[in-house]
């Protein structure tokens, strides 16, 4: 999924059984082949949501209208970025979407094949500046409290993926040598999830949506939040450079359609999440955790400097683990000219901003407060209601939950940012801390990991871990 990469030899099994109807450039007049990953939910504005809403086809109809030209789109769905890259290099996919590490592989391999095969990164789909799209989960009964406790254990990861990259960089910060102190099983996310349930691995290090999905299902708890690493992670759109030069109007139509999908996601976050959930089979509550208002992912098609800088820093890491042989020449690969034109005069301002365009707003119905601080704002999703209810802060969330339960309401999901890292997480799956020294409106604090909670407790005399139900009862 999402950002999984594979070394060159691993491309063969990934491609087995995959077929693409003809060569993209020779598949018929006006035919565009798009490679995407339906379950990689932070690429939905260039994939699942874009397809389900028909935004690209609408833009192509407008493009062909004046001269009566008709265009058709062939959508090719894959589990990872690796086969999309292979098909692009074979000239069989024109436009693709994938995570940042697969983008690096895509660019590196296309540059190695010469000018006619080169690709370029032209827009962003979803991103997180701290890296919270990646995480490490363990079974509920695991004794591990930090990554250090995984020493000598076996961990499942998709080698070369951003989830794997986050894991490797994080365990080094804990004083572990990932090559000597741990055993990493190179597995696809679905295989790794099954291995975790079977007890054959001690932990699973993966990218969105797997950490949230397993936690939401009650099958695991979050051991490590990628946001603690502070390294930006993102997903983006890549095109064949020659194709883009020869078909600039089509590329512009695609990017404008991506902007349409992004605007739809911002304006109707619940409907967008329901659409993606329906197309992928993922629980809508998990999709909304990442893609909803104030979600873990921020959706903005502009190419931002922090993302580009992180991209440059990722090149040596991928080379060090043998995923790429020839370092990518970043400057010729990054091209924001197309998305700049699609966005228009507001591009520079949008590219400079890292504020979430889909921030949670409104009024907290229980606390009677304005909801306007992204660092504390959360949501309560009541069963049977078409929209979520905004809450101002963690204590207000607890009070909302208590009030709703008192009314006999059933809750679909509750979301709140982590006190330290700011990562939005399921409030009922958080580790809650009571700090008697804090003001009443700040007395209860949520943490996505046990480690985060215990760090706070150790630094604040009198603070203690409490259950979620106790926090709801006493807030």
Automatic annotation (TrEMBL):
Pfam family, one: NMT1
Domain Solute-binding protein family 3/N-terminal: 43-268
InterPro entries per record: Solute-binding_3/MltF_N, SsuA/THI5
Keywords: Signal
Gene3D superfamilies: Periplasmic binding protein-like II (3.40.190.10)
Signal peptide annotation: 1-21
Domain of life where this protein originates: Bacteria
Keyword Signal carried by entry: yes
Tagged with keyword Oxidoreductase: no
SUPFAM superfamilies membership: NosL/MerB-like (SSF160387), Periplasmic binding protein-like II (SSF53850)
Family of the protein in this entry: Belongs to the bacterial solute-binding protein SsuA/TauA family.
Protein's name in the database: ABC transporter substrate-binding protein
Source taxonomy: Bacteria, Bacillati, Actinomycetota, Actinomycetes, Streptosporangiales
């Amino acid at each position: 999924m999402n950002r999984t990469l594979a070394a060159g030899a691993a491309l063969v099994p990934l491609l087995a059984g995959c077929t693409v109807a003809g060569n993209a450039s020779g598949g018929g007049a006006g035919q565009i082949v798009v490679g995407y990953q339906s379950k990689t939910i932070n690429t939905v504005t260039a994939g699942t949501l874009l397809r389900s809403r028909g935004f690209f086809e609408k833009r192509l109809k407008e493009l062909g209208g004046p001269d009566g030209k008709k265009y058709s789109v062939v959508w090719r769905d894959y589990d990872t970025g690796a086969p999309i890259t292979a098909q692009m290099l074979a000239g069989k996919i024109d436009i693709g979407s994938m995570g940042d590490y697969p983008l690096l592989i895509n660019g590196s391999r296309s540059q190695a094949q010469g000018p006619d095969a080169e690709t370029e990164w032209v827009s962003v789909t979803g991103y997180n500046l701290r890296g919270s799209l990646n995480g490490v989960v363990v079974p509920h009964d695991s004794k591990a409290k930090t990554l250090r406790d995984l020493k000598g254990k076996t961990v499942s990861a998709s080698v070369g993926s951003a989830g794997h990259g986050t894991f490797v960089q994080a365990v080094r910060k804990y004083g572990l040598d990932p090559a000597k102190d741990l055993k990493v099983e190179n597995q696809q996310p679905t295989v790794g999830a099954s291995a975790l349930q079977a007890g054959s691995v001690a932990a699973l290090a993966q990218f969105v949506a797997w950490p949230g999905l397993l936690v939401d299902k009650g099958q695991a708890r979050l051991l490590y939040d990628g946001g603690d690493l502070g390294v930006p992670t993102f997903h983006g759109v890549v095109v064949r450079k020659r194709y883009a030069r020869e078909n600039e109007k089509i590329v512009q139509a695609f990017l404008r359609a991506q902007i349409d999908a992004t605007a739809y996601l911002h304006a109707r976050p619940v409907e967008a999440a329901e659409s993606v959930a329906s197309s992928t089979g993922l629980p809508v509550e998990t999709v909304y955790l990442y893609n909803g208002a104030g979600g873990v992912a921020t959706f903005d098609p502009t190419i931002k400097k922090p993302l580009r800088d992180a991209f440059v820093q990722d090149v040596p890491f991928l080379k060090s683990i043998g995923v790429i042989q020839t370092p990518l020449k970043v400057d010729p690969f990054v091209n924001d000219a197309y998305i700049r034109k699609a966005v228009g005069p507001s591009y520079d301002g949008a590219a400079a901003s890292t504020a979430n365009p889909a921030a949670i707003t409104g009024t907290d119905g229980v606390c009677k407060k304005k909801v306007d601080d992204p660092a504390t704002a959360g949501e309560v999703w009541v069963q049977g209601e078409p929209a979520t209810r905004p809450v101002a802060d963690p204590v207000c969330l607890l009070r909302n939950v208590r009030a709703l339960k008192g009314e006999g309401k059933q809750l679909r999901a509750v979301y709140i940012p982590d006190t330290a890292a700011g990562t939005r997480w399921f409030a009922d799956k958080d580790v809650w801390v009571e700090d008697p020294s804090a003001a009443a409106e700040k007395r209860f604090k949520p943490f996505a990991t046990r480690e985060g909670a215990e760090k706070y407790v150790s630094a604040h005399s009198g603070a203690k871990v409490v259950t979620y139900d106790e926090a709801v009862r006493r807030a």
